[in-house]
Amino acid sequence: MLSFGSETTDLDQLIHTAKRMDCESTQNELRNYLIEGLSYGTAFRKALGSEMLNTPNALLGLEYIRAGLKYHSNLEYIPIQRTSDHHNQNIDQELPSGTALRQFITIANPLDIYSTLQTAIPTPILDDMKHRITSGHYVDYSRYYNTVHMLSRRMTINELERFVDFTEGIEHLWLKAAQQPSWESAIEQIKSKRYTYARLQRMGAYLTLGITKDLINIVMQDGPQYARLLAFNDRGRQWLRTEHDIPVIQKWAKAPTQLNNLGKSMHHIDTLATDIQALCFHNEERRVGHTDYTYTPQYIK
Q1: pLDDT tens digits, 108-129
Q2: pTM of the model
Q3: Which residues, in sequence order, are CB contacts of 300 under 8 Å at separation 6+?
């Protein structure tokens, strides 16, 4: 089963729309709208004639179902009603949006977190949030943006062309924008109907992690090469003793001995992602690398 939040819980409508997404007529219309310069989301909405694609969580649910129909036809779907506005920045909603929560916890006094969020977030999570904020164990995005901006400046056109989503000559715009004083001002210069903030942020991540078109094509064809164990209970302990289609990694250092070349590439990118995240923490003492190698799966009683 696969459950997800959605602005609509009409499962029949979701499945019907997901099936239409890969129809030849829909794809042809999508390409035509993209050629006209529309963003991907707007182009898909017009091609399908569905306002459902205006709602971000339902759109994500559609992509889940679309992939499920292609790769796992027996999946059952359980949409859960999304009652709050995805982009609402009001922290006083009964269920605040992710946008509101992220903005609040990065500027609020840790002592205010409890009084403001105790009705919306379970106490154990609030305890963890307070601890991470007071200890500086969370990302300073300005450090990450400076990393993306620095890497952009050292690239050439030919090098940028290798990375995922760098198509249609955007690498020329990208290099020109890299001369701006900050990453934020750079993406403001590139942003358009066709190149949304979300897409530009993804491209920055592909560049930072070295995810190339050649690699992504292989991954899309061959699928995941391993699963990583983060936590388990008694039921999970029994499941771990059974046979699995792909390796289940418990000790990060031993993973390369269990993986093929594609799996080793994925392992390297996963490690790099954690290391870059650590380098961007507020607290300097938290910026050590290779913490993946010291993580022990958690036993949950």
Answers
A1: 777 777 788 888 888 888 888 8
A2: 0.80
A3: 231, 232, 233
